[in-house]
């Protein structure tokens, strides 16, 4: 489990990582968008949270793609 000093980043991280539903929900999408805005404004922890989410194993593929686009993280190379 990741922990972030910025409580807002931590709560958004947990909201985005929430997998209680089989599909992506609006709360998860909004959390990723807000983390992206915070990262663009220079919040390093928000960027770290996006990177952690992009690598998290239980993230829905559609949400993972949104995370990568928001943080401008390149997808891993496929073999």
Automatic annotation (TrEMBL):
State the source organism's domain of life.
Archaea
Q: What is this protein called?
A: HEAT repeat domain-containing protein
